Amino acid sequence: MTKATKKPIIEVNNLTKYYPVESGFLYSLLKKEQRYVKAVDDISFNIHEGEIIGLAGESGSGKTTTGEIITQLQDPTSGEIIYKGKETSDLAGKELKNFRKVCQMIFQDPYGTLNPRFTIKRTIEEPLLIHGYKDPEKRLQKIKEAIEKAELRPAEKYMYRYPHELSGGQRQRVAIARGIVLDPKIMVADEPVSMLDVSIRAGVLNLLKSLRDEMGLSMLYVSHDLSTIKYICDRTIIMYLGRIVEIGPTKDVIDKSVHPYTKALIASVPIPDPEISREGAGIEEELPDQIDLPSGCRFSPRCNKATNRCKKEDPKLVKVSEGHYVACLLADKGGDNSSN
């Protein structure tokens, strides 16, 4: 399944993103303590060369924010992203422009991310113009190559169409073509198939896998859908309220999950056969207030296995098997906590 190496192309170290709330003159005058939404809270992981790593969790878990910080669409509150030995927040000028060339993002909405006034050719040409490709013939050649790599063939059939003339799946392939036209090394795919018909999702996922193999891409695949995570990803990270609760080879995380939250996510995935039920139970309670987070394990208010210890102690990632780590006090036996 994988052509990944153990050599990291991206290192995420102690990444944090807090959003301040209730700011303003009156709030300052009353000298109230500033409160924050802790969207991403001290997470660390690596993306290896040639790897597709999944990032899963409910809405509000921090997965999209993590992807946007990696691609420099947002600045972190603290922590660092290391690319080839350099911290990306220190990049400026030409170095920053070069990083944005090698690190691209595909967004969730294939309808809202394409300019309706641009032809497909103009849409894919835009990043080439931004990055200084001045020769029109070379630009045209790269545009055709990107369109055909995205499996829209022949390219001439699609180049002069507008987004409204394409299906949802074709639009997402155009977005992918735009993302690969600069020959990036890293791709962040944020829910790339969630708005597509089920019948065409597999084709887009297979395209992403083939691009990884053909171009040597390293990919962060962000999704709430564990079935697509299992299909495409080499390793998987499960996030909950800004923290990593489980990380490891996808087969282990999905088939041998340890954290009660991961098990609940898996249990919530429907099975076509009504005679078959999954072990474990789905999650019934709503997410806690993201400003006033629970003490101890953040999942403890929703966990049917929580103990008094869980409500007091903050669990750290510990090793449960080779490459498989979980942040759960019920699994903590004092093991290694190096999860990269």
From TrEMBL:
This is Oligopeptide ABC transporter ATP-binding protein. PROSITE patterns: ABC_TRANSPORTER_1, ABC_TRANSPORTER_2. Belongs to the ABC transporter superfamily. GO terms for molecular function: ATP binding; ATP hydrolysis activity. It comes from Natranaerobius trueperi. It comes from the Bacteria. Residues 10-266 form the ABC transporter domain. Transmembrane segments: none annotated. PANTHER family: TRANSPORT ATP-BINDING PROTEIN. Gene3D superfamilies: P-loop containing nucleotide triphosphate hydrolases.
